[in-house]
Specification:
Elements (H helix, E strand, L loop, with lengths): L1 E12 L2 E12 L3 E5 L6 H8 L7 E6 L8 E4 L4 H4 L5 H6 L3 H4 L7 H13 L15 H13 L5 E5 L7 H16 L4 E5 L3 H5 L4 E4 L5 E4 H6 L1 H13 L1
Parallel strand pairs: 3-7, 3-8, 5-6, 6-7
Antiparallel strand pairs: 1-2, 1-4, 8-9
Length: 236
């Protein structure tokens, strides 16, 4: 069943389009990687899917009873966010805010969800540690735990391995793959790491002068996929 269906989306700012007439579907259980050069519209698309920005034209339909507050989001980290003065527990628990509604306090169920997600990210020993004292990889796992507090259906991840060393990059990819494969959480991930990302993806959306949307196998066999995979390989 489709969680998101995008019809003829035109995205941009102040009526200046970055992407025109974009059509794609995210089915339950998909692992969709969104690729493209800087300025291609990847983060703009992410904000539009989250409802933080309206499309210039076109529509986004949610299915399977998906509500806006049931989408988990891991944003790109800024220097300010990396120095956030809160504990691991406080950061993870804040992911439950969307389910609180008008109720001003976290419930027992919210705290149980936060604890479970801290445990599943392997951070229980750091639960009372300051977020800003953690390594980059540990901080990303805290943010992933926070995103999971909001959803059991759909995660939107914006450059989740940016700035991580090779070991932590593989660890983050492993965690995301397990969430998709073993817990059936649908993944939509923006990435610059084409070769790394497509090892795990079921589908690829590549934005640019031309747009590709299809399965990973079709992307790897396409002229666009062959070109960008070869180009990235030459850069390493």
């Amino acid at each position: 069943m489709a969680l998101l269906t995008c019809h003829n989306l035109t995205l941009g700012y102040e009526n200046q389009p970055l992407v025109r007439n974009l059509n794609f579907t995210v089915e339950a259980g998909d692992y969709l990687c969104i690729l493209g050069n800087n300025g291609a519209g990847k983060s703009t698309l992410m904000r539009t899917l989250l409802g933080l920005q309206a499309p210039i034209a076109g529509t986004i339909e949610k299915g399977d009873g998906l509500a806006s507050n049931e989408i988990g989001y891991l944003p790109q980290q800024t220097l300010v966010q990396r120095d956030f003065p809160a504990t691991v527990w406080e950061v993870a628990l804040s992911g439950c805010q969307g389910r609180c509604g008008l109720f001003p306090f976290y419930r027992k169920t919210d705290k149980a969800i936060a604890l479970r997600n801290i445990e599943r990210m392997g951070l229980i020993d750091f639960i009372h540690h300051s977020y800003r004292e953690l390594s980059g990889g540990q901080q990303q796992r805290v943010l992933l735990a926070r995103a999971l507090c909001a959803t059991q259906k759909l995660l939107l991840l914006d450059e989740p391995v940016a700035g991580l060393d090779p070991h932590m990059t593989l660890e983050m990819y492993r965690l995301i793959q397990e969430l998709n494969r073993d817990e059936h959480i649908t993944i939509v991930m923006v990435s610059h790491d084409i070769q790394g990302a497509i090892q795990y993806a079921t589908h690829i959306l590549h934005l640019g002068h031309e747009v590709f949307y299809g399965t990973r196998a079709d992307y790897e066999a396409s002229p666009m996929g062959r070109y960008f995979l070869a180009w990235e390989g030459e850069q390493k």
